[in-house]
Every structure is written in structure tokens, then in C-alpha cells.
Amino acid sequence: MEKELNYIDLIRTRHSTRDYEQHTLTDADRTQIMEAVASAVPLSSTVRLEWKIADRSPMGCSGLVYAECGTSDEELAEYGYQGEQIILALLADGWGTCWYAMVRMPGSPCSITIGRPAAPGVRSVVMGTLSRGHMRKSLEQLVTGGIPEHSSPLVRTVLESARLAPSAMNHQPWNFEVTSDTQIVIKGNTGRFPDIGICLANAMVTARQLAGKVTVSRLNEGKYSIAW
């Protein structure tokens, strides 16, 4: 039976883990990680990603989760979309994770570190500062035209989850538009990072949790609709 996750709570409590306990992945760990991989729903039926575990330990983590991926807008969006769902599922199982671009496996735009989180140390403080941690823009800065006065709480919750999505150097390269009480549009800058897909994943799982159904559609390059 598929496990039901409280994605809204996971998104709000998630943080990038940069200090890990010494832990070698067991066969049971690997099975659990691949179950998290299998739980991710794809954004596009035309982009195929095969996620793997690499026995590498940057920052002292236990391994890297990654997939080979092309550099087109659609492929990078798919990478972030699936990867962020994997991260949230791993968080629910007690794993620490971090989107990590400094160690790239062959053909991968970036990796996800995974391990058992340790108490934050000097590395967490330094890396958090360098990555502009806790400096996210407000919804007022991100929502084009503002949030309509009579928008439902569901709209605001989906927007907040999208706002909290991690991005390279915490630049939040996207903006939002509320088109109705059952739809928002997310537009993001394209580049070599999967940021827009990460943002879409946060919005999608939140809308699905609250409304029971959701449709994510690509409108054009870097522009997507989330409807429920």
C-alpha cells in the first residue's frame, strides 16, 4: 500500500543537510532509497530518467542519488521535478539530503547527497551563508499582479510551498501568477540547473494533497500551469 505523506509539513520543515553521521548504506537502505525514487511521478512522458545511487561521500554523506540527463529546458525541469519528490519521500524516512552541484556524476546536472543527518556544525553555517540560506523572497515579490483578495487558502498554501522550493544559491529564479482559484502559473528562468522543476514539484504535491488531484502542463519554455 502506497504511503501517504504530509507534503506540506515536509516542505516547511525541510532544510539542506550538510553535516552527516558516518554511515555506510546497507542493502535495506538502498531498497528504501529506490522505493523513494519509484514514488516520484514524472512531469513528461517523453523524458526518461534512470536514478542511481553512487558510493561517493562529499560533505561526509553516505552516497549520491543522480540520473543522467540532457540539458534542454524540458529535461532539466524533469530532473528537478522528480528529484524534489524523491527528496521529500526520503525526508519522511528520516534521511538528510541536499541538492549538490559541486560533484557531478557523468551526464548529470547535479546530485542529491543522502545520509543520516548529524548535528549542524561549522560546515552548515559556512555553506548556509554562502548559499544565501534563509533569504528567500516574499510572496509579494514573487506573485505577478499580486494575490487576488478573495483567493482561497488553498491557492495561498500552494504558492507558499512553491516559494519555499530550494534553488541554486537561493536565487528563486521564478515568478507566479494566480489565474483562478484552481490554477496558478509558474514561470522560471531556464539554464543549467533544474530549479524550475523543483519549484513545480513543491506546488504539485501540495495541490494534490489538498485538492486530491492536480494537472501540471507545460505552456512554453520555462512556463507551466498547475491546476486542480
Automatic annotation (TrEMBL):
Superkingdom, taxonomy of origin: Bacteria
Matches recorded under Pfam families: TM1586_NiRdase
Domain Putative nitroreductase TM1586: 8-205
Residues spanning the membrane: none
Keywords, comma-separated and alphabetical: Oxidoreductase
Coiled coil: none
Molecular function terms, GO-annotated: oxidoreductase activity
UniProt cross-references to InterPro entries, sorted A to Z: Nitroreductase-like, TM1586_NiRdase
Family under the similarity heading: Belongs to the nitroreductase family.
UniProt protein name: Putative nitroreductase TM1586 domain-containing protein
